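so ive been stuck on this for like two days lol. basically i have the seq below and the ligand is zinc ion, smiles is in there too. i just want the complex predicted, nothing fancy, no docking runs or whatever. if the output looks off dont worry ill sanity check it later, just need somthing to start from for the group meeting slides
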Amino acid sequence: MKPRHFQRLYPHAQPAEGPAHWLLFHGNDVLAPEGAPPALLPGSAQAPEAAAPASTLLLGALDGQPVLAGVLPDDAAPPAGMRALNLRAALGMADAEFASLAGYAAQLVHWQRISRFCPSCATPMTANDGWGKKCPACGYAGYPPVSPATIVLIHDGDRVLLTTKDGWGRRYGLVAGFVEPGESFEECVVREVREEVGVEVADIHYIASQPWPFPHQVMVGFMARYAGGEIMIDTHELVGAAFFTRDALPELPPPFSIARQLIERWRHQQS
Ligand SMILES: [Zn+2]
């Protein structure tokens, strides 16, 4: 089936008449029907029955049909027949279209929550262009934050270097970290690899990127060749790191993550 086209809309727009798709949030949780994976909920410009959102955001249109996010009051229980799922769990169960829309919606809901007051002088902020806000007192302007972070698959022939963190159990992932001010993505890859696992990398190639709404990263994915050094982990960040061969990989990150997609890409290149 052809993927549906999502067109973004901004606060000056009004939802079209007729049926609409809804996403409902309660705090940081996404609401989903009991016993079913999370999905867009049917409604109109009015919220789905039994839900009384405290605020509503028009996100855009999916094949022309409005997509709205409703935020339930903090003290409201989920409507009958609905359950609250944390965003990470919801994205793990959902299809790609819902995961993308819910991730976008969650970031705008988060932005509404954190942008009420000027971070410079604490005056209540007012609407600016797009989703932006501005401070009427000091002129500060803010927009929904997006924090770039690099993630890198380090390969060495038939081996891949994977890392694990406290709380991950038997699961291993890739070296990743936030881009710092004044740093290129490639410089970030080299620094993060040195800091986290103590090795050198070369031949750094961009592969793909992925919005990562926990709470507002964009993961910029690379592959790089191992270029020497002994593994020495940063024990503040990691509890383990090791090379694994293609036929003996450990438990891996969930399929929707770019970490897993980079690992699968490498695995297929090798085979
Ligand atoms: Zn201000």
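The chain is about 20% helix and 35% strand. Residues 117-143 form one domain.
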